[in-house]
Amino acid sequence: MRYRNKLFSYKNPYNFEAVQALFNKAVLENCKYQYKNCTEYRKILDGMGFNPEIINENGNLPEDIIEKIPVIPTLLFKRMKMFSGPEWKIPIKATSSGTSGKNVSEIGFDLGSLICGLKMVLRVGRARDVFSLTPCHYIIMGYQPHKGNKTAVTKTAFGATFFTPCLSRTYILKYKSGKYVPDFDGIICRLKILEKSKFPCRFMGFPAYTFFLLKIMQEKGIKVKLPANSKILLGGGWKQFYAEQPDKTEFYRLSKEILGVSEENIIEFFGAVEHPVLYCDCKNHHFHIPIYSRVIIRDAETLKPLGYGETGLVNLITPMVKATPVLSVMTDDLGILQRGGKCGCGNPSPYLEIVGRVAPESIKTCAAGAAEVLKEI
After folding, report:
1. CA distance 9 to 174
2. Under CATH, which number does the domain 2-86+292-376 receive?
3. Residue 100, SS3?
4. Domain residue spans in the chain?
5. 366, CA 20 to 30 Å: which among 92, 182, 184, 224?
6. DSSP codes, 302-342
7. What is the pLDDT of residues 220-229, one digit of tens each?
């Protein structure tokens, strides 16, 4: 995977244009590997009439090569396992959200992808100033680690506590009697203690639980003023709580009012276990696309690529992972791709806006059902 390694070794994580040819080669390199080593993936590509072996990677690749590679819906990974090579050789596996073992994706990560992921996190995180030598207390608005919990979001939240020296970790979702139970009262009590600490506090985890905490504290008339340089890091999406998702300005207002954390200290992340690229919002809270991935917005009925400013299904592409064929996946998100210059933060990379979600039970194919949702937006 020499092209993959070169791509993830590039220093500027948002110099989109400079690495386009390299990205195309890395994608084709990955596609050929998956085709040779994953029986299920090969059957999918053969069934769609796409054979990566007919393309000469040393020649001029077609400009639309990224668009032509067959797209796999993330729903398929929730219904079957696909690994490129012996399963016992895969060092780390992670699942999508949910701990029951049902309807979750299980994705394998090879050693090379883990090294690439570390380089990516360091570069993208540094661009948003999430690393610090100042020790912090962590409030994790997610799952308390448990031997039966292999979800990627749990591993990610725990990993994020190493962005600074960690003084303590307090979890909102406690594992009790075989299930996870939210402990809002315990978090509130902990915040009253951390308010008096000399060290900053960092929230990390699901934005929905963070918002619910803020509303509960508001209703009870409880306010704290966390130490200077405290931050709120949001990741994991709204999942089943899309209906309760507030306007971002309301979230920022509550964070300032209830916790004393201002908007510039709120950072949001976007990603998925089936697409483990780190998207970190800019100062204007937009998800600019890093050089390690590409995003294609596709028409809900035809799956044809759409232009900037148009709403459709979100297709995510990355050559990062070798152990599982997650090269090009279709999420159940509906999104819009905007030109980087429209943001105003100075980052020239295009940015992704998530505007809705297709309920999995309504998806008959990777596109069916989304057209009706689009009419509502």
Report:
1. 38
2. 2.30.38.10
3. coil
4. 2-86+292-376, 129-270
5. 92
6. T--B--TT-EEEEEEE----SSS--SEEEEEEEEEEE-GGG
7. 999 999 999 9
